[in-house]
Amino acid sequence: MVEASSADGRTDEAENTSSSSKISKSKLRRASSTAGDPKSSKPAPSKEDIPPEDGAESMNLDEKKTKKARKKHRQGESDHSQPTPANAAAVQAEEWSWIPLANEEQAGHSAVFSNDGQYFFVPSGSSIKVYAAETLKVVSTLSPLRSSSAPSLSPASPHTDLVTSLLLNPTNPLQLYSASLDGTIKVWDWLEGTLLKTFDFGKPISHMCAHVECSDVVFVAGRNAKVAMKQKNGRSTNSKAECTVARVSLADQSQKSRRIGKKIAPVTGLSLSADGKFLIATAATTAHIALTSSLEKGWIKFVSPDGIHLTRLVCHPSHNIFATGDKSGHIRIWDCLQDENQLTFEKLGVAKTPTTRLMHWHAHEVGALAFTPNGAFLISGGVEAVMILWNMDTGRRGNVPRVGAPIQGISTVDRPDAGQEILLGLADGSFAMYNVTKGRFRAQTGSVKLASPTLNDTEPILAVDPQRRRLALASFHPASLQIHSLLTSDSVQELEVAPSNRVSHKDKPVFITPTTVIQATFDDTGRWLATIDGREASLDSSAAWYLKFWELRGTSKGERYVLNTRIDLPHGYERIVTLEFCRPPTTGGPLKLATAGEDGTVKIWGARGPVGQEIWVNRATLTYREEPPLHLSFSPDGSVLAVAHGSYVTLWDGQSHALLYAISSLPFRKVNTVHFVGSNGRYLVVSGDSKDAIVWDVLKNKGLGRVSTPPPTSLDTSKTSRNPLVVPIPNSDNFVVAIRHSNQTLVSIHSPRQSDPLRARSLPFPVLRLSPLPSSPDRFVMAAIAADGSVNLVGDDLTLLPQREGDVERSLTSKHPLSARPSLFENVYGRSAFKDLENVENLPSTEMVSAEDRFGAAVDLRLLDGPAYLLPPIESLFTSLMEGVLVKPPTNTEQEEQDEEMGMDVDLDEAPEDNIVPAPLLRPREENESEISMLVDLFSQHALIAPSNTKKGSRVVNGSGTKRPINSKAQVNGIAASAGTHLPSPSPTPSPVASVPVAKVKAKQKANGILHPSPSTGQKRKVPPTS
Rounded to two decimals, what is the model's pTM? Predict the structure, then answer.
């Protein structure tokens, strides 16, 4: 227990036993001293101990704001005054382990492909993710850890700020350049995953480009450090000239960078022309052009004809033209690089208006531009979530709608094995690969997608399937859900809860969303998923809400959730605030779902019908004093339902739905959440409009006390949430209480039998939603959604989840070899089945071992390594070698034993021996003289006929190449056929079971007549029988 001490060192014991919960000034000083270090336990020096000059400097904060925050903090804790334990500060909040599943750092970037098209690179915060183009999975991360002894700019140190630009070394495609807001340029060996060099530019870098004609040189756009910091903190600046474009040499680190022209407005695009002679930079409404051969002359300015700010820039791969996109959705093709009359430096600083070609489809800002590798098409995208393909020759366009989210990055590649493909970087942080040849999307990254920013005002959706370890989260489109598997780190299904058109608003850069998904929950088996979607009332339409039950079924694409039951207006036109499944595990009762609505009712829904054909109907409706329900929770055995009504908590019987009793003596004006904790459901944790929670004993019907939370590590208590998050821990009697502050979240683990926390943890971001995952009760893992929309896994033991392969840097040379371009033979006949063996390392070794070790034969195969004249006679080695190479097949008994050991099915349902009917014995067939004679005659008649001489005027019959005179008689099977004469065709091979004499067959054919093909037409005709 930590006791509070006064300034003169005496212990104030009365403060520990006082009923007042006000925080003393000494505690506030202690909190301020530990704001930078949460683990520090030293008390802050008193005011008398601070020198006058130091004390004056420490009082530069606004006195009024500080006093107001302290007053609010004291008033919040004095509500329903309860003693705050003095030993609450004894539990130090250690930082919890956490890993991100989805963050916005990788959204909005265009990928850079390797030369062979097998990998692509994407900035992700201060690191670089390496993806496999075939599977779109992360295979490596370029972000080496900084050693404690390494200086900040050593080759072993990573970027310390966001990576803004990536490009391959034009002269060495195995090297990758990266630029960052920390002002450094780094050179990577991406194949080995190592950092080679670091160059310090000194200013935050926003753009970078290079060309093969300018070897060991990059061009960068850097911003003023102070202006960049103000923009990063969200503050506007009045500076118009804040960017510097410079030439940086990577061959010599001692050589200083060379500035090009004067400072310009913030750069939105930087690129080099196809021949490398021109450097283009777009800023505001102007395109700045400089000659790479004479950079000292400065910029030639060309202003956009529309006078609208330019947002995107891309150069043609083979012609000296470039394309720009602006905020109004216009795309322009600039040909000024080909006009030498306009590329003059006569009037520097005077902007010219060039002739451009306009292409317009987008209604909002152009988000991305890219040319195909051959330059035949220009690809654009934006907020509309539609990819547009522009034909550069004809100007016609094609579109690919419903890509899932606004397009913020486009990259193209010509892959040898797949053809031309387009990689789209979407606003939800995912990537989608579109195959131009097949005309469809081939693959999409399986990471968790970011939710739409329009959903920031609503409570985030987070549901956990405990059986399959899946998460149900809000997708970027508000009417859809995404199902993500934690076991495979892949997206399982994109569930469109409410079918809607993906059309953007004409005046606003957002989707027109008639419906929005607001709630989702799984049952304990994961078979059922319940969702709530609908819309609020507006001037054009009334409110409408829908309760939908989704059943997990096997389809051709795997397990998918399929709509089972839809219930319109389950609580009238009022909104549904919460829902929860319940399946009593002890009584084996039916599955139930409880929903609470703003209409003041709680409804119980149950499944009716045989298994596999259930439908959901309403079972009961509960009300209490016309108080609107705010939250509900089932006990673990399903026998009791707890509902929060205003300042009351009511308990209902789970079977008869009768009211048991109501808890009215709670110290809250408004109850927010109510949860059963423990395996037996004896305790109830209630949270309200203060930062504390109450533990209630359901059996004794009395409160056990208020649980305490650790104090914040910052004095900024004005943004502290007054609604704590209470989350029960599965398979445990403990529970979690999370208090959200402005820049962190304090999490404490409690037991219902004591008020002090068992341990405390902290997270460096405010948390909006927590949900537990199946794990150990002592070392548990939870899914968390932060205030910025990122999804993270937090907990004590994150090793319970499978580690993703590409989370760390590693070499790509062994497991992912580079594929060579296919040969002409492979293009015609296909690739060899033995060329791409995936398990090359698993092939048997070529090292010679003794046959006695491998097969049990007493012969050493290394004898064959010697010269032939020293080998023993082959007669003496033949038997031993054959026994060593040829493995004797196992007997029936041994095979059955091996099958049982391997778990194979063995057929045991055999008929008894006395019921087995013996199969008839088949005697070998004997040939007779008549058959031999028939075969000899057939061979002599058809195979030994001399070819006839070909005469002039013969022609080809039936394309067989056999020529005959035009006026001669037709031949059948090489024999001339006269009128009324029948020449039989060769008889089929006689059956092995019964043989028919040839004489009888010929007689029957002559008597009845048979069908023969006509020599002229090939059609069958009937030959009349001979007289």
Answer: 0.68
